[in-house]
Write a structure and sequence with these properties.
- The protein is α+β, with helices and mostly antiparallel strands.
- It has a domain at 106-336: Lambda Exonuclease, Chain A (Alpha-Beta Complex).
- It has helices at 2-13, 31-35, 48-60, 68-79, 133-139, 143-187, 198-201, 204-208, 210-213, 268-280, 311-340; strands spanning 216-228, 233-243, 246-255, 291-298, 305-309.
- The chain has a 5-stranded mixed β-sheet with strand order 1-2-3-4-5, sandwiched between helices.
- The longest helix has 45 residues, at 143-187.
Length: 341
């Protein structure tokens, strides 16, 4: 039936010829077929004679396809010439202008055999105009670090209130101080210090570092001041001792959150390498240190995370520390100029 209707439409479109197809009658006993409306094809209602010339002109067009070059020319005319973007340059690592080596070639890598190994160095920190490691790191924090610290402070104040937050920070400082006092009593030779507080020795922080203390020996310095003679900065290191047979600057830290990776310790590696470099260039220390160790202890007594820094890793952080030191020096210089103005 469809074929027949198609032939009729073609004949009808021809000039001088007209055929009227006879109506088709279909008998069916099915109620579905009787009640179903005939589906009308919308194309059958189009006036084919009216649009025949248009269809004929479209079908008879034999123009050439647009070449790629002409497309580019047309785009350039409509939208302007194409601007080729340069590949982004890879950021080169900044290099400190005033380079100072981390290790001192004039020093021995081992403690002096003539010194008394049972008496660790404990040099008091002299308060003077020379900046401390802590101050340099605080004054050169990145904007991201500052905003993160501010968010934490606002969150804690919202939770505890102004007075509660002040009490919280005071307690944290006191806990850290007692933790270091307990460590000093543990690592010092017997009889050099007063009897340690039993409550401190039973605290969660001390229990947390027991597995680390088993690998610590040959303590050379405790709570001792250091000064870098060339770069002019000072600091107070926690400990210099052997860890698993390697002489290290050891920094003891407390935390309420787990810090299983060295990246979680923020600026602590920079603090450690700053002390390493200072020890190596301080005339009060006859030995040289090539490694560092950050130990993060937990209040609940869970095993502490020790982060060992070998000579290569220390060298990498040393370059970053020198950049922070340069930034601090630049800021201080600008502030002094502003004061004079």
């Amino acid at each position: 039936m469809k074929v027949f209707q198609t032939i009729c439409r073609q004949l009808k479109s021809s000039k001088g010829f007209s055929v009227e197809p006879a109506p088709c009658v279909v008998f069916s006993t099915s109620s579905y077929l009787c009640g179903r409306k005939k589906k009308v094809n919308p194309y059958e209602e189009v006036d084919q004679e009216k649009y025949s010339d248009l269809v004929r002109s479209v079908l008879s067009f034999r123009g050439h396809a647009q070449a790629p070059q002409s497309l580019f020319e047309e785009d350039a005319l409509l939208y302007g010439p194409v601007r080729k973007c340069k590949a982004p340059k890879q950021e080169e690592e900044a290099v400190p202008r005033n380079w100072c080596p981390l290790f001192n070639p004039e020093k021995s890598g081992k403690p002096n055999a003539t010194s008394d190994p049972t008496i660790p160095l404990k040099i008091p920190l002299q308060r003077n105009m020379i900046p401390s490691v802590t101050r340099i790191l605080q004054q050169t924090m990145t904007s991201e670090q500052i905003s993160c610290l501010e968010r934490w402070k606002r969150r804690m104040i919202l939770k505890l209130g102004e007075d509660g937050f002040a009490e919280y920070t005071s307690n944290m400082f006191l806990q850290g101080k007692r933790f270091h006092e307990a460590l000093e009593s543990i690592l010092s030779p017997q009889g050099n210090l007063k009897e340690p507080d039993e409550n401190l020795l039973k605290s969660g922080y001390i229990q947390s570092i027991q597995h680390v203390l088993r690998d610590v020996s040959g303590v050379q310095a405790l709570e001792s001041a250091v000064k870098h003679e060339t770069l002019k900065y000072v600091g107070l290191l926690d400990c210099v001792a052997d860890y698993q047979g390697k002489l290290c600057v050891i920094d003891w830290k407390t935390s309420e959150k787990p810090k299983p990776f060295i990246q979680n310790t923020f600026d602590n590696p920079l603090q450690v390498v700053a002390y390493v470099g200072a020890v190596n260039h301080d005339i009060n220390y006859s030995f040289q240190v090539q490694c560092g160790l950050i130990v993060v202890a937990y209040k609940d007594g869970s095993p502490a995370h020790p982060h060992f820094m070998d000579a290569e890793l220390c060298s990498q952080y040393w370059a970053k520390w020198l950049l922070r030191l340069e930034e601090y020096t630049k800021k201080e210089k600008n502030q002094n100029i502003q004061k004079l103005d």
